[in-house]
Amino acid sequence: MAKPRATLGVDLHLEPAGPGVRRGLTDALREAVRTGRLAPGTRLPSSRALAADLGIARNTVADAYADLVAEGWLTARQGSGTRVADRTVSLSSLPPPRPRVPSRPAYDLVPGLPDLATFPRAEWLKAARRALTAAPNESFGYGDPRGRAELRTALAGYLARARGVRADPERILVCAGFSHALRVLAAVLRARGARTVAVESYGLHTHWELLGDAGLRTVPLPFDERGTDPGELTDQDAVLLTPAHQFPMGGTLHRDRRAAVVDWARRTGGLVIEDDYDGEFRYDRQPVGALQGLDPDHVVYAGTASKSLAPGLRLAWLVLPPDLVTQAARAKGGSDTCGALDQLTLAEFIASGAYDRHVRAVRLRYRRRRDALVTELARRAPRVTATGIAAGLHVVLRLPPGTEQAVLRAAAWQDLAVHGLHRFQHPEAAVEPRDGLVVGYATPPDHAWQGALDALCAALPE
Amino acid sequence: MAKPRATLGVDLHLEPAGPGVRRGLTDALREAVRTGRLAPGTRLPSSRALAADLGIARNTVADAYADLVAEGWLTARQGSGTRVADRTVSLSSLPPPRPRVPSRPAYDLVPGLPDLATFPRAEWLKAARRALTAAPNESFGYGDPRGRAELRTALAGYLARARGVRADPERILVCAGFSHALRVLAAVLRARGARTVAVESYGLHTHWELLGDAGLRTVPLPFDERGTDPGELTDQDAVLLTPAHQFPMGGTLHRDRRAAVVDWARRTGGLVIEDDYDGEFRYDRQPVGALQGLDPDHVVYAGTASKSLAPGLRLAWLVLPPDLVTQAARAKGGSDTCGALDQLTLAEFIASGAYDRHVRAVRLRYRRRRDALVTELARRAPRVTATGIAAGLHVVLRLPPGTEQAVLRAAAWQDLAVHGLHRFQHPEAAVEPRDGLVVGYATPPDHAWQGALDALCAALPE
Predict the structure, then answer these.
(1) Would you tell me which CATH number, out of the four given (1.10.443.10, 3.40.50.10860, 3.90.1150.10, 3.40.50.80), belongs to the domain B107-111+357-459?
(2) Whose CA is closest to B381, among B454, B461, B449?
(3) Using H for helix, E for strand and C for coil, what is the string for B16-50?
(4) ipTM for the whole predicted complex goes beyond 0.90
(5) Helix spans in A35-91 (H)
(6) Residue B16: per-residue pLDDT
(7) Same fold, A3-93 and A120-353
(8) Does any CB of chain B come closer than 8 Å to the CB of residue A7?
(9) Are A88 and B312 inside 8 Å of each other by CB?
């Protein structure tokens, strides 16, 4: 099936179609640069020309180029095209660099990413220009560890309006993503003598490990068909929850249970950490307001730009109870650790209304994808139930008992990256075994969406 | 001396001239916003109009506005002028916000800052546009914990060329400023069982405290008229040095001592951390190459954009020995913690030559300031010797023994912020007492430079 082609003096062994083409092209070009067959500074043909030459889709070439630019093998500059990167440094005394990025599957439905192609480059640049023009000189200096006042002010307004958060700019801490924010909170908890944090039976290993690394034991709360059950909250020092949209199961914390969590916090002095990672994305009814609105003195609200805009911005925010602000700012470090320009740009982006417009646009887009997914599944995999579809950027597909591993193997065979539900289960969770897939339908770019959907359906039991 | 004026319905008690005017105006406007006498959304007069009305310099008004924008009381947007910020959040249940920023002295010669007015806004924006246009979609996702490959590649070329660093993009770790980088290194050292770090007798308390917080004891090396003496390096686990330009004393580590440090590292397996905070700024001879060039397997090179561009970017970089890369990337966190867009912009800024042009331009500017400072001191304070003048953004003024405290009091009387040499002495340093001032001559904006110089000379012994 493989046929060798010679282009640019590079031997390309490409399959005539399918997901292997991009990877084959990327590997061949990378190897040619690494071995020096493509010399530094060499200009590559345009993606259009190379695609025509190879008889493959132009997107495939463009994607391969983009991968290699990202890896640092090629450079792309407006007006001078794509070139082999200059490596002016003598590496003679060093071991040869290994390829950095393991080859990626053709289709990606791993949850946790928005569609990166939707990043509003032009609008962001406009906001950056306005922010950079208006920025006072002192914004280029060492900043308040809480983050730029402009951004905290814009966030306070936005969070009050859109998420029902009782926010005051003085109590907001800008962080470099939710993990950074959680690390800051873990340091604050440890400094106050905390030892255990209640978590949900389903969630992200990285969060549990981060808390564990900080010296905090994570104890899972029971999970039933109504979601996380806070009934077992007793003497834990804090609880980490996703009340608006349980990750990954997708439900909303019931009103009675919301009240029970806040009651526990008031009674014991425990701290509630509300991870509102995708609160902007609700499709079928009104957004669920933040738990923090019930009691801003006992709940830390955590939001992020990672789902609504892009993880690459590395911007998230905590709204803190008054007595934690100083400690959290100290735990973050003596001065601000987030770039001032991105903070000012996001402040401008929110204040100008561009953030709301962007969220509305991508919400519509994701809703269409969700609808297509549900329709396709009903037709092609009727034994599979999609749950948690009312909100967010992912669904859980419940599988017949005992089939999860087989489905994951079938997915790998289809060159599809997707995660099983077991991966999100806390190792100490006392839950009935549930087989399922967690499907992040926002992840693929448009051109790969139908392919990803086809690969998924092919992997599911009929 | 104070005379009340009524403008905007705001009582302004202003001294007719001098450093108090800006503070008085800032305080009065802040109070008017806080108490609601200036309602949210109110448009303020232009700085020109208000200055004419009050009979004060337009810059003073512009600075007061900028301070209040920075503090979040006012907003400035192109085309809609300066307005009272919207505070849509009800703060009824919360204590009233306290003023965030203590009143600042009129003149600032505290070291550690470049002239923030020199930030190349237009060039940076151009680079941001090119970077944002060329960025592959994946750059908006969760990134390599080492930082963007584009930036690491650009830095490797620049550091090899400009600082003699033996750099490989694979071994560079982008961090959010030097303090963040030092925190990462401290975590790596602790994980390897390290207990003590040798430091210089003079340096920054914040660095020693950061190491102490990580569980590492700092032990000062002797300091003599030839600078830091590495002769007492024995079984310490690491040494933190400023070889190109001792901070704050200003000398260069002697060639023999450079060799001795590297010999120690090779003999004992100790780690050398080279803090090259202002290596770009040398005025009287060739730059001193990085110590790391002598032995990239035992020296960690640390550079930063904080002096050459602006601390607000929060970008610094480590060039690591091969065996530390994985651990350091893990200590930084599971994914990148620095914003991708600023990283891509800096990569573009370096690759396009704008970084070199900017450094040349500000070097000339700082050299002129240094010359003016030295000339003025020779004329107006002949008993004071300026040392460490060959490089960097600060000098040390040696004072007659026993006079430092009196000079600091006189400086405060002149409304001048400046630091005494004792502040930079390690608490355990066995050094002869030295009286002096550490003068950061890059800090003031142009319009405040002559005033700062006058205030300094007035505070010094005649």
Answers:
(1) 3.90.1150.10
(2) B461
(3) CCCCHHHHHHHHHHHHHHHCCCCCCCCECCCHHHH
(4) no
(5) 47-54, 58-71
(6) 46
(7) no
(8) no
(9) no
8 Å CB contact between B279 and B252:
no
At which residue do the structure tokens 């962080």 appear?
A: A175
Asked which of A3-7, A253-257, B149-153, B223-227 is least confident by mean pLDDT, the reply is A3-7
Burial class for A319, CB neighbours closer than 10 Å (0-12, 13-18, 19+): buried
Residues in chain B with CB shorter than 8 Å from the CB of A206 are 334
Domain boundaries, chain B: 3-93, 107-111+357-459, 120-353
Contact with chain B for residue A85, Cβ under 8 A: yes
- Name which of A402, A115, A249, A253 is nearest B138 in CA terms: A115
CB contact, 8 Å: A59 with chain B? Answer: no
**Residue B35 pLDDT level (bands cut at 50, 70, 90):** low
B360 Cβ neighbours under 8 A, 6+ residues apart: none
Class of domain A3-93: mainly alpha
A113 and B137 within 8 Å at the Cβ level: the answer is no
Q: Which residues of B344-360 are buried (b: 16+ CB within 10 A; e: fewer)?
A: bbbbbbbbbebbeebbe
- For residue A278, report the phi and psi dihedrals to the nearest 5 degrees: -140, 35
Please give the Cα distance from B113 to B362 (Å, whole number). 13
* Contact predicate B176/B337, CB 8 Å: yes
Kindly report the backbone phi and psi dihedral angles of residue B146, in degrees, each rounded to the nearest multiple of 5, phi listed first.
-75, -15
For the CA atoms of A282, A283, A285, A288, the dihedral, rounded to the nearest 10 degrees, stands at: 0
Provide the whole-model pTM.
0.79
Question: Which neighbouring-strand residues pair with B198?
Answer: B219, B239
- Fold that domain A120-353 belongs to in CATH: Aspartate Aminotransferase; domain 2 (3.40.640)
- Contact residues, chain B, for A142 at CB < 8 Å: 112-113, 311-312
Instruction: For residue range A128-187, list pLDDT tens digits in order.
Output: 999 999 999 999 999 999 999 999 999 999 999 999 999 999 999 999 999 999 999 999
Determine contact, residues B318/B173, Cβ cutoff 8 Å: yes
The DSSP output letter for A100 is S
**Considering only residues 167 to 186 of chain A, which have any Cβ-Cβ distance to chain B shorter than 8 Å?**
167-171, 176-177, 179-180, 183
Tokens at residue B396, please?
Answer: 């040390």
